[in-house]
Amino acid sequence: xxxxxxxxxxxxxxxxxxxxxxxxxxxxxxxxxxxxxxxxxxxxxxxxxxxxxxxxxxxxxxxxxxxxxxxxxxxxxxxxxxxxxxxxxxxxxxxxxxxxxxxxxxxxxxxxxxxxxxxxxxxxxxxxxxxxxxxxxxxxxxxxxxxxxxxxxxxxxxxxxxxxxxxxxxxxxxxxxxxxxxxxxxxxxxxxxxxxxxxxxxxxxxxxxxxxxxxxxxxxxxxxxxxxxxxxx
Length: 233
What we know:
By secondary structure, the chain is mainly alpha-helical.
């Protein structure tokens, strides 16, 4: 199981032991950060050795990744990290816009104080990032905002779908973010500020529309960087 760059094998998260959900989250992060690039084969045997577990929790984690659309199982080959063609990305993009608009239909108002605390902490961390501009740190901040927003969704089906499509789209975003990092940093700061204001007033529906607008801004930049297509918003 060899990535193109052997220096990229160190995960951003420590390797957990024994728990399939934790292993799944680490593998998902590696895929989204392109540590495991599209086309790479993931060996159950090698992963079991790394995580010090039997193949059963590894297999469970890989099955979840396949459900997410991040891997695919091929007969005679094994589990392969999937790519994402332009048509699939268009579909994911448009669907994420709709998902964001639905957040206000299923609010979990009890989660508002915790989400506001999370967002304010992210604002503090972003100020530190503006000095060193590490891409993986910025990715973790975006993930933090997604998590804060996702916890506001009371409907389990919507919450899980919202999460799955976020991670599918994040791989494309991460692959080109270096070309518009300054603009994205400014946009992310604005999104955090707007989201904090909406949460302070208890307006979960506004949070969804704020996310929708900033997804549109960010992904237009992605497509401009890729030079393939310009979706209608």
